[in-house]
Amino acid sequence: xxxxxxxxxxxxxxxxxxxxxxxxxxxxxxxxxxxxxxxxxxxxxxxxxxxxxxxxxxxxxxxxxxxxxxxxxxxxxxxxxxxxxxxxxxxxxxxxxxxxxxxxxxxxxxxxxxxxxxxxxxxxxxxxxxxxxxxxxxxxxxxxxxxxxxxxxxxxxxxxxxxxxxxxxxxxxxxxxxxxxxxxxxxxxxxxxxxxxxxxxxxxxxxxxxxxxxx
Length: 215
Fold this sequence. Notes:
Blueprint: H1 14-26, H2 29-48, H3 59-67, H4 83-97, H5 102-113, H6 126-138, H7 148-157, H8 163-175, H9 187-195, H10 203-209
């Protein structure tokens, strides 16, 4: 039975479980669930496109990249750089502490740092491509390959909890901590501009609300 015919599973190793605990201890439940769903969607995309685990990409590194891609939005991030870079730094520090070498750490750093960079992540190899694609799928992008049964199972196990607003709130909160965290032309700066003083819904929130999954 292929991955596309069943519900994808999370890794069960000790480090994988510790990483889930690490993420859940720092992110809101909504954002942590989003990160987990991003991995599950990424595995479905890989299977759909014929990308083979252990051959075309390292499944453990894909798990870490998806799971930790939004660490930079958490309150434990320094708030001195854009959230994509801070999340990549935090993930790299954690993986190095687990004993991973730079040959593994660097691709995860790159995948996380580029997950909001359309046209770039897709050209940096399967890991960066699948990470961005998995994140995008949780926003409702390119999800025709996901069956209703798979989507129901994924969302039952990891509910959305109005993730769009939760994520935008976290990005903006961290971005307002320093000018460098909301540099010109970054996602964070654009979200601050869109929300404005009146708390208007951002393009991200509106897009996710109208997607196949809803907010």
